[in-house]
Amino acid sequence: STLFPYTTLFRSTYTPERTRVAERAIAWEVVAQNSGITMDAGLDFRVDVLFVSKSNRRKDIDNLIKLVLDALNGVVYEDDSQVVEIHAVMARGSAEEPRTDIIIWGR
């Protein structure tokens, strides 16, 4: 058989170590602040996120959201396909301490 350009026989997703470390940190913090958290494959979820940064540097908010959603896989929900609504805000140049606030709503 002939392989066409750009055809792959094996696909895998590469996640950089720095991203995996950040995902684990987010997951641990969510679990630490929500004792008794249980996954529910039958629920849909809404996720609200506030990213606070002292820097005025522009950051790609969709990548930050993906980091949060991926971190919650296997912790809050089985798969981030259960997230049906997202509300995210980036507060740049804030006098507040940098942080990420996450509110998760099951419905």
Element order: H for helix, E for strand: HEHEE
Mean residue pLDDT = 87
Global geometry: globular
Task: Give the percentage of residues in beta strands.
Answer: 15-25%
Largest sheet: 3 strands, mixed
Query: Number of DSSP strands?
Result: 3
- The number of helices is 2
Helical content stands at: 25-40%
Output the strand order for the largest sheet: 2-1-3
What class do helices, strands and sheet pairing give? alpha+beta
Radius of gyration, Cα only, in angstroms?
17 Å
Q: Distance N terminus to C terminus? A: 49 Å
Which parts are unreliable, with pLDDT below 50 for 5 consecutive residues or more? none
Tell me what you see in this structure.
27% of the residues lie in helices and 23% in strands. It has 107 residues and is α+β, with helices and mostly antiparallel strands. It has a 3-stranded mixed beta sheet with strand order 2-1-3, with helices on one face.
